[in-house]
Design a protein that fits this description.
This protein is an alpha/beta fold. The chain has nine helices and 14 strands. It folds into two domains: about 240 residues, Type I PLP-dependent aspartate aminotransferase-like (Major domain) (Aspartate Aminotransferase, domain 2, 3-Layer(aba) Sandwich); about 100 residues, Aspartate Aminotransferase, domain 1 (Alpha-Beta Complex). Helix content is about 35%, strand content about 15%. The chain binds pyridoxal-5'-phosphate (PLP).
Length: about 375
């Protein structure tokens, strides 16, 4: 039992900014003089229309999204988009996928259900996904409908250190654990999508940013209308009742990021935070990172002691001390500290102090 807020290193759902939570709390019973909470208001009301429009406008501003891209707020998380991607984008049936970890593999397997011409362009499974295949290692098809990559690999703690050259083939990028952590050139991508529960808002939604020329409608006539990005874009994401609360919370997070100085500033803060942890890992005799520096994620840092029992002991003692959810993903073991935007620097400084102490005691 904790009497105060703790440092939550969960990969998702994860920490939200305390400023954002407090603002939501302030407006919880009576949002903007409407006499109701956002959870209770009509999705067709003027108040909610303002919320969704402002949220989209702030996302466009913060991410510098060009005008020829649509922004969609869709239910089903990133996982439902694994299916929506082939449903909306397959035309010839050929698509390239790169496997760099757990979620990119799931996306690949989902695509296989829609076409037998899905092509594995590269995979880093030969080294337990500890690296990112480089351009010359990508076996790209001549005229694929798209190339799918997972930009930041939440489970293994790696990040793409470049944007692939595809000769005009649109890149579809899962940015669930990367979105809003640093600037990205949206114009280099056909589609960017992200479940919001990692770095933006509570669970329940994905943000999909899609270039207009890719909105050509569904590839099959038996798919649910809800999956149709073109129809969703036409409906302004209000084809049916949208996840209103979640959209509102995204809006609050975007305002918070703007108040800090936008994504350039966010990047500066995040890299400084991650450096504190990685510098310690590189100097420690007990803990080590499994990822080469150039592929390291600034959002999910994975590490091990090399002894599974000691890892377990560390996770247990850290939890006692108020550093929770440091256990690595069940598929890989070890430890993982997810240090998204809302994790304060102080949380990492204190974690490193705790790790040093643990190292002293367990030499
Ligand atoms: C968490 C995560 C997902 C799955 O997201 P859901 O919203 O739970 O479907 C997909 N991709 C990445 C990179 C993730 O981190």
């Amino acid at each position: 039992m904790f009497s105060e807020r703790i440092y939550n290193f969960s990969a998702g759902p994860s920490m939200l900014s305390e400023d954002v939570l407090k603002e939501a709390q302030r407006d919880l019973l009576n949002y903007g003089g409407t006499g109701t909470s956002v959870m209770e208001m009509s999705h067709r009301s003027a108040a909610f229309e303002d919320i969704i429009h402002q949220t989209e406008a702030d996302l466009r501003e913060v991410m510098n999204i060009p005008d020829n891209y649509k922004v969609l707020f869709l239910q089903g998380g990133a996982t439902l988009e694994f299916g929506a991607i082939p449903m909306n984008l397959l035309k010839t049936g050929v698509a390239d996928y790169v496997r760099t970890g757990q979620f990119s593999t799931k996306a690949y397997k989902e695509a296989l259900r829609f076409s037998d011409k899905i092509h594995l362009a590269a995979s880093s499974d030969d080294k337990t996904y500890s690296y990112i295949p480089q351009q010359e290692q990508l076996d790209l098809s001549d005229s694929a409908d798209y190339l799918h990559i997972c930009f930041n690999n939440t489970v293994f703690g790696t990040k793409w250190n470049y944007i692939p050259e595809t000769n005009g083939v649109p890149i579809v990028a899962d940015m669930s654990s990367f979105i809003l952590s640093e600037p990205v050139d949206v114009s280099k991508f056909g589609v960017i999508y992200a479940g919001v529960q990692k770095n933006v808002a509570p669970a329940g939604m994905a943000i999909v940013i899609v270039r207009e020329d890719l909105l050509t409608g569904l590839d099959g006539d038996k798919y649910p209308t809800y999956m149709d990005w073109k129809e969703q874009a036409k409906a302004g994401s209000i084809m049916n009742t949208p996840p209103c609360w979640c959209i509102y919370m995204c809006g609050l997070t975007l305002k918070w990021i703007k108040s800090l100085g936008g994504l350039e500033k966010m990047k500066e803060i995040n890299y400084k935070k991650a450096k504190i942890l990685y510098d310690f890992l590189d100097s420690s005799e007990l803990f080590k990172s499994a990822v080469e520096p150039k592929y390291r994620s600034m959002m999910n840092a994975t590490f091990v002691t090399g002894d599974a029992e000691l890892d377990k002991k560390f996770v247990a003692e850290a939890t006692e001390a108020g550093f929770v959810n440091l256990k690595g993903h069940r598929s890989v073991g070890g430890m993982r500290a997810s240090i998204y935007n809302a994790m304060p620097e102080e949380g990492i400084v204190k974690l490193v102090e705790f790790m040093k102490k643990f190292e002293e005691e367990n030499k």
